[in-house]
Sequence to fold (983 residues):
Amino acid sequence: MTAITPDFGRGELLPPLEDNYLTHSRGILSWIFTLDHKRIGVMYLVSVLTAFFAGGVMAMLIRTQLLKSGGLIWPGDAQQHNAFKAYNEVMTLHGALMVFMVLIPGIPGALGNFVLPIMLGAKDVAFPRLNLMSYHLYLWGAAFAVLAIVMGGVDTGWTFYTPYSVKTDFGGVEYMAFGVFILGFSSIFTGLNFIVTIHKLRPPGMTWFRMPLFLWAIYATALIQVLATPVLGITVLFLIFERTMHIGIFDSRYGGDPILFQHFFWFYSHPAVYIMILPAMGIMSEVISTFSRRHIFGYKLIALSSVAIAAIGFLVWGHHMFPNGQSTMIDTIFSFLTMFVAIPSAIKVWNWLATMYHGSIDMKTPMCYACSFLFLFAIGGLTGVFLGTLSVDVHLHDTYFVVAHFHYVMFGGTMIGFLAGIHYWWPKMTGKMYNESLGRLACLGVFIGFNLTFIPQFIMGSNGMPRRYASFDPMYLPYHQLSTIGAYIQFASFLLIAVYLVHSLYSGKKAPVNPWGAATLEWSCCSPPPHDNFKFPPQVGDPYDHDAIVFDERLGGYVRDESIVPELPSNAPHHPLTHEL
Amino acid sequence: MTQLPNILGFLDSFLLPPSGSSSAANHDPVWNAVLIITTIFFFIVTTIMFVFIFKYRRRPGLVQGSQVTHNTPLEIVWTLIPLIIVMALFGVGLKGYMWYDKPPSDSYTIVAKVVSWKFTFYYPNGGISPYLYVPLGSDAHPRNIRLQIEAEPGDVLHAMYIPAYRIQRGAVPGRITELWFNATSVPPLHPGSSADTPENHFFDIFCTQYCGEGHSQMRSRVYVIADEAQFQAKLKQIANPFVDIDGNPLPLATVGKNLVDIYGCNSCHTIDGKPNTGPTWENLYKRDHTFDISNEAGYSLKATDSDAKWDAYLSESIIDPGAKIVGGFKNAMTNFAGQLSGPDPNDPKNENNRRRLAIIEYIKSLDHTKGPDGKPLYYKPAPIPTTAPAATESSTTQSGKQ
Fold:
């Protein structure tokens, strides 16, 4: 091999632009059975956004029903509540779709798949076939969810609490539970693949503490996916057995314990909250550093706090059952541990703020989402302190306060982070720039709509409005109406996002290699990337060293300034795998 | 600083329901502490963010300052301060929780039976009511009420939540859970009430654990009675549904109407003609009915059938609901044999039989067929007894568990 230093910024040594991963091969089968992590990522993105749309329509139905105290779409009262069954089904589908098919696979499946190998300077993930299988299992899981709707629906809530889920006469529970089981394996395969990829495919010079923080976040997420998801799998299998064979593990009529189900379920589902939020935090670290043109502050603390969240996140599940008949001792222990999990998240927020200090902050759309994240996640995290404090939780448990709290974390955190990531990597994925003004406008719409939806829910929750109510006392009506208006604003904003993103595919400006001035490796291969990402293993530097990245007028994007040679650690490992690929 | 409690008071009047018990007084200071601390942190974070966004916005001529990448003392400080604060909050939260967790030994125990989708309160004197009636206490002279929450075996999970008292507890089949409180104020007029009557002065009780289509309507009320003599009179009246609070006898159909609330008939039977799990009671009496299932071959009921045949049918449908199933319905009704019939179902003196007859009287009163004279054609109101029969406590207590 001749000793040429590849000039990635100008793309001279890269394949011609016509040949990229989108045009490399043609035909529907070349997508369905592709082993290319980028195509799998794009297919994940399309699927997840489709599920997000379906879940969003459910949310609109929920909010419309709650415009009237007796229910607008499915009215009922104390004597007449058959109509509420439809509401309960929609409420269940909203939760199940959003959690199992959007939030959990969303960032790792769509963005992680696309970005992770390129960030490592690798040609693909470690197990491309496992990666494809993970996506196919996602589709099978989705098919079972649709089957569940056809076979009689589900009205158990996304939590499937026993004994209700055993007794309900809705016929789709087994199918939905089996769908969740399959989706769980999809998630495990993704996690396993990412762990191995990060361990084995890092290029020479990229030590653990020179990895981009998004990779740290994805790594911590993958650990949770692999360790916690099997528990969910066995739990939903037991649920299916309980429903079909009455094995007597969860149903008290057969000697089972319904609270045991809650322990099993939350042993997965609380760590699952961190499966959702950690990748979003990883995106935050990338976006804030890039758009502040500033080295990330406290790199090691951010990296290690991701791992700390993953670890502590396993020990707090009991706080979902405080007043549900747990022993006082267990309540005490879980409240104590729950308090600890607040700390690593707080550390990250401080570090992101410090990263903005003395930056050169460019409020492009991804940065607008990042700042929304800081605002909304602060509310989501701080309201968690109310719920972790035992005597306050006794009042707020299972009220709309909880609903608002977890929406601030899951939507204000995960979905806003996901949107930041989509807008950040969109030029890389599609090779097109979207309309910046519309992007910011939609971000503002989502922000205002979201707060208008959920701040009233905090207030009615602390005033005693219980969750999962298809009808409610008229005293809560004004809050519900405000909340519904906010939800409509959000929906309109999302339609706007869909419009300008699709529009950009057809008539967007061509994206430069590095439109934002980021220093991580994915911005040194062209947009969209070629089929095998890199012809030569890229040069690894500090992922947050923005001094070496300068704006080039001719290209309309940033390039690496070759006069600044990145400093490599002297003990940089030479990794054979990267060369073979 | 003296302004602070007022601001908090204003905020709490907006954020929290009215405070009605010592448990609310136990909760609210902790709530306030968390509210103040989290609000301060929220403003610190967002203020710094907005200031930085403005101050360091990218613009021509902006010179970036030092690119410091970490600062260990600073990072230790912003880790330790939140840690100390959340540990303190854990402490005060635990203290409040321990107080809530254990009812005082001098509590007055009321059994709260929880079934889908209904709360029913069993008082120590044998009275049964869909509502919770408690005496007024104070901090100096507490009247502690202990609610023993019993879920029906085989039922789904429920939870009992009283927002004004800031307390809730899950109802788990096969376990007995507890709540306790000392009501320290008489409830204000419930928001949204049409008239300012005593019936509209109550605190809400909600079910907070999702339990199916009736979940959002699974509600009850707490009435707090300030006067001790009135409270005792109320208890007596609850134990004897045949009289009003002053001890005067009530019309039998009115008694039946009240009993329907207690026994929960209305969770399956409407009185407005709409179908539900069971047949509607409106115009049920003296109509033509056919039966899908019957223990008597070829059995049918007609408007022209005798009063005695109708009475026998209605009684049987309560005591042995599966015997005859009206066309188009499933056999889904609870058997009320123990609760609404005595050892001899025809003994007119037996309390349970009398209750059943009152409910039947109420069902008959829902027939709106008018005769030529404009009066009800079939329904003949039973005479109001001149003297109130004494309540027989034993029969109601034995009806406890089904």
